[in-house]
Each structure stands twice: as C-alpha cells, then as structure tokens.
Amino acid sequence: MIIFSENFDQVKEAADLEELYGYDGLVDYYGDNPAIIDSSDAFLNVNTSTPLELGDQHKRSLYGFTKLTTTSFSTPLLRDSRRIVFGISIGTSGMRDGLTEVIGAIDLVQPFMLWTRMDILFSNESSALFKVSIFFRQNGTIDITFDNMGAGLPEISPMSGIPINNYRKNFLEIYTDSTGAESGHGNLKIALNGLTIAAREDVVNSNYLAWEGNPSNPVSYYRKVAVTMTYHTLDWQYAYQRNAQQWLIDSFYVCNEEGGVHDDFLGPVHITSMYPDPAQTGDKNNWIGYKNNVQVAEEQKEQYPNASLVNNPALDFTADADDYIQADAELLQELYYMKNNIDPGRIGLNNPIAINFSTFVKQIFSYEGQDFDKGLIAITKPSGNDIDRETGAKIAVDQYTYKPLDIYWPVIPNLAVPWTWELLDGTQFGFESTQIIHQLSLSESMDLSEDVTEE
User: Fold this and answer.
1) How far apart are CA 337 and CA 17, in angstroms?
2) Which of 141, 144, 368, 374 has the fewest other C-beta atoms within 10 Å?
3) What is the spatial distance between Cα 42 and Cα 59, in angstroms, rounded to a whole number?
4) 3-state helix, strand, coil in the chain (%, to 5)
C-alpha cells in the first residue's frame, strides 16, 4: 500500500522539511536555492516575470534547481519493508511549454538532463542496502546500473540505450523485493512512463553482508528511499556539475507490500493537493477559530468559517500563524469538504487511486509547566454514512513545533470500495481531539488532502 507520497506543494521552504519530518529533505551542498516555478504548463520558466513560489496553491508546483550541484533528498523513516515500490516524475528544469530550451552551445537544443546522474538508494535506518543509478545520455537515452553495496556480491546486469521522452517529464518506477536476497533470490523491476522495461529475478538486491545473511536482523529491512543528483562524464570527459542540465521533480511515491493493495507499479500518476472548502460547511466544526489572532465571534462564523482559517497551502515556520483553530477539550471534531480543482479531462485523469490526509498540529502552551496527555486522530464521513474514527493512527500532541498526522486510504473508509471522483467530492475529512486536550493550535496552512490519480 502507499506509505508516502510527496508533491512538494505544502512546504514553503526546503529547509522546513527537517523541522516537519525530522530528516534533511532537499539538500544542496553548494548553497543554491530551489528554483521558482512557472504555472503555465507545470514546467519551470526562469524568464517568467511573475514567478510563483514553491507551495503556491493549485499551481502543480515542482522542485528544481537553477544550477545542478550535488543535491539530494530522502523520505522520512518508513516502516520495515522487504518490498519497496518507488515512483518519481522527473524532468529538465529548462523545459518550457513542453519543449526543451534552445541554448545554442550543444547542437542548439539542450539534451534532456544533460550529463545528469540520478542515484536512488534503498536504505536501512543508517546505510544503503541497494542502489539504482540512472545516467541521462546526450543522445536522448538513459543507462541503468545496479549496486548491491557489498564487495564481492554477485552483480546485476546493467541496461543501456533506453529511449526516453525528451520533451516531457519522465515517470520512472523501481520495484525491489529483497525477500531471499541472501540466497540470491531477490526480485527487481524497472518501469518507464508506465511500461516495464526490465525484470531481474534471482538477484542479490540487498547487501546481506551488512545484516550477516540473517533476515530477522532489524537492519535487513528497507526503511527509507533517498535520491541524489550529480553528474557523469560518459559523454564528455570535462563534464562537471555546473555544466550539467538543471533538473526538476514533480512528485514521487513509495509503496510497500502491506495491505494487499497498491503494492506494485502505479504510474504514471499525478499527485495533487486539495484543501478545505470554506464554501461547503462540514457537519462538525467544534474547534475555536481565530482570525488575525482574535477569536471569531459567533456572528462572524459565517464570514470566517473554520475551513477558511486552515486552508492556506504552504507550511511556513518562519512566523506564527495569524489564522488558526484550537481546541481545549477532548472529543471535539472538525469535518471539511475538500475543494477539488482537478479537471480530469485536461490530462485524461481516471478515478483517484488513493487519498492521503495530512493535518499539522502543535501544542501552543501548557499549564504551569505541566504536560498534558493530548492526542489527535483523523476522522472521515462518506456521504450518507456515519463518522469513521481512525483510532489506530493517533498521534500525541506534545511539542511546540508542528508535527503531521498522516494517513492513507487506498479505499473509502467505512465503505471499503475504490475511490471515484463523486465519492471523493462527497466525503468529509477531518480530525478529533482525544484524551485530555489543552490549547492545541492548527496553523492557517496546516490542513490538506492529497490524492493520487492515474494520468
């Protein structure tokens, strides 16, 4: 099932990822900043006169760098998994309106991600167990190599000369199952733009020397996925980071074998965010709303409904929120309809694959230095049904910086049927304060729902 997905539009700055998730996030070792994004066709445009910052709502934001340096990002720690499916949508940051940028020096048209090398590492908590490397070549193809990170372990045969789409983002997916890797029976698949291009059976796709060939060893599991961008010299011996083509990432997802659903290739997929819709009042709005740090009076609630106080898209840790909601008792519920701005006909979207609901919460103060037992759970209410409480996914609210409550629904809660656009639009999403709650705060930018849909 899906255990992590990211489209990079709920975090305003790359550095915030460390505070939010507890990991480094997108890191640039040479100090460059993430690139600004053009909204015209979901591609970066460095010449636009009205750039949009990362995190601007409903602009299909991408992450990219205006200069390719050695950069990397990592997921948070995931649950123990033998099988991981990783998908990523990646392109050239020089793309504009679907065409590669004409820049003159090399055959007039810049090759797709010229001289770029992308390493995808599948790691335990502290070290990589398996690596897949993608080399973007000047002739419009990619080469793929595999590394099981152990000296003397049997090698996996590489691939070369695989054609890619030079004018649009490419969606790359990797399936790696390390079950039996210690005896040479691991499995591996690669897909490009929805087509499986390689399958390797009976391979060593985990460094079993690191876990002494014992599958019960805790370090034998995949726990996170990391991506590193650098350069290669296969096409030009003088290639280096500053020459290489800039890159961008649209979105990525991670699945594992649990749940019996969404445990193989999904893509190509499109990940987008939806936010609470102030125009539709949810069935439950029991938290206290604050507008400009002042409690919303009863006669103002129609003008400033709670949904309007938590539907800004971008997390920003640089300043306290002026608009937020808070609860000072247990069993207070909030339910919202999500505003759906997706036009399925624009790019031929089918029904949603899964829904990820995220809400971000913090404790704003305690009483006389005492810590109270506080918690938050997700709730849903499909149209015509009772409220469904996700008690197994409760988080403790025990810190003064925001932490996420994240939960994935591969099927509709309570109904256990696949998602459709109609059922999505008719489902309310929200949260409930649990146990003893004392003054919790949700920022103005802290509530969103992501859906993953076929492209």
Assistant:
1) 27
2) 368
3) 7
4) 5, 40, 50
Neighbours of 368 (CB within 10 A): 4
Burial class, 345, CB count within 10 angstroms (exposed 0-12 / middle 13-18 / buried 19+): exposed
What backbone torsions phi and psi does residue 87 show, to the nearest 5 degrees?
Answer: -125, 140
CB 432 within 8 A of CB 379: yes
Residue 302 neighbours by CB distance under 10 Å? 9
pTM, full prediction: 0.81
Dihedral over Cα of 446, 314, 271, 338: its sign: positive
Query: DSSP state, 166?
Result: S
- Strands 224-231, 71-74: pairing kind: antiparallel
* Residue 212 CB neighbour total at 10 angstroms: 10
pLDDT tens for residues 95-143? 543 334 434 344 445 667 888 899 999 999 889 999 999 999 988 899 9
Give 255: exposed, middle or buried? Use CB within 10 Å, 0-12, 13-18, 19+: buried
Which stretch of 21-35, 223-237, 432-446 has the lowest confidence by average pLDDT? 21-35
H or E element in which residue 216 lies: none
